[in-house]
From TrEMBL:
Keyword vocabulary terms for this entry: Coiled coil
Pfam families (alphabetical): Zn_ribbon_9
Coiled coil region boundaries: 48-165
Residue span(s) of domain C4-type zinc ribbon: 202-234
Official protein name in the record: C4-type zinc ribbon domain-containing protein
Compositionally biased tracts (Low complexity): 289-298
Originating species: Treponema saccharophilum DSM 2985
Length: 325
């Protein structure tokens, strides 16, 4: 298998994986989209419960006032009826007092009752208002949920398609690249780019300048090389500015066999993402004599944060072929 095919496959795989992780993120965050609507519904329901309690209180009060009114009316009417049978002045005065008091009470209670009945009416209207608001909110939420369900289903079918492409691309790569593919997944998950160009000896992923010897190897394109700083897979990209001589001096001793033995050693203890950043020397050709192959721990930077540093280095290390000699 030609290395250019491997690089092309990895680039294709990168496109697939970036889409896949993006979609997975969206599926994960989908339920949160309705969170504010659910919260609003919850507030409305609490409000409605409070209104309902108030309505019940007013209703009880109205019933009580109705009984009181009935009492007052009965008392007044009885008084008036008994007036016909009055025989003494004393009886007359007592009845007169009863009627007067009952009339006053009747008037007061009737006024209170009217007021309370009006409140009850308003309370009922407000309660019904709340109920219809809740109904429409529920309907909206249901619709939102069904839209979201469809969206998620659509995402999932996209994922299925992506998985097929992913498997297809992976299966085209030789067995020996499967570990590389595995690492590739981790890098893309974190950085969204797992394979980047090297231009003028600079990694386009982290913008660090690479040791000249190493950059030459990338240029040779004979094996998979990982950036010692950001761990991304590197491929050479012509800029038109570079001189040919670097390429001609390419160290040819780094064979595929070297790479394979390196790979096995390095990959055997590579379990998860976190350990990966320290694995910058993966696939790095041990035949280079610039002392760089021990770069694992201190030379590694995790992300793009170190652009400035990289550019600084560019200034005093632009043409560092001598390093490798
Ligand atoms: Zn890099």
């Amino acid at each position: 298998m030609e290395m250019t095919e491997v690089f092309d496959s990895l680039k294709k795989l990168q496109g697939v994986l970036v889409s896949r992780y993006e979609i997975e993120k969206q599926i994960e965050s989908a339920p949160k989209q309705l969170g504010s609507q659910e919260e609003f519904l919850c507030t409305l329901e609490k409000e409605m419960n409070a209104k309902d309690a108030e309505y019940q209180t007013i209703k009880e009060n109205v019933e009580k006032l109705k009984v009181e009114l009935e009492d007052a009316v009965t008392s007044r009417e009885n008084g008036e009826k008994n007036m016909d049978n009055v025989t003494t002045h004393r009886e007359y005065e007592a009845l007169d007092k009863q009627i007067a008091e009952a009339s006053i009470r009747e008037k007061e209670v009737r006024a209170s009752l009217q007021k309370e009945e009006k409140r009850l009416e308003e309370s009922l209207a407000s309660l019904e208002n709340s109920k219809s608001l809740i109904d429409s909110q529920k309907a909206e939420l249901d619709e939102g949920r069904s839209v979201l369900d469809k969206q998620v289903a659509e995402f999932k079918s996209q994922l299925d398609d992506l998985k097929k492409s992913e498997d297809e691309i992976s299966s085209r790569l030789d067995e020996k690249y499967q570990e590389t593919v595995h690492k590739f997944h981790s890098i893309i998950k974190r950085n969204s780019e797992g394979i980047v160009a090297v231009r003028n000896g600079v990694c386009m992923g982290c913008h660090m300048i690479l040791p000249a010897q190493f950059a030459n190897e990338v240029r040779g394109g004979e094996k998979i090389l990982f950036c010692p700083y950001c761990s991304r897979i590197l491929f050479y990209e012509e800029t038109g500015e570079e001189e040919q001589e670097n390429f001609l001096d390419l160290d040819e001793t780094g064979s595929l066999a070297d790479f394979l033995s390196d790979e096995e050693d390095d990959f055997s203890d590579d379990s998860e993402d976190d350990s990966f950043a320290a694995q910058g020397e993966d696939g790095y050709d041990s035949s280079s004599d610039d002392g760089f192959s021990s770069s694992g721990d201190d030379g590694i930077v995790d992300d793009e944060d170190d652009e400035d540093e990289g550019e600084d280095e560019l200034d005093d290390d632009g043409d560092s072929e001598s390093d490798a000699e």
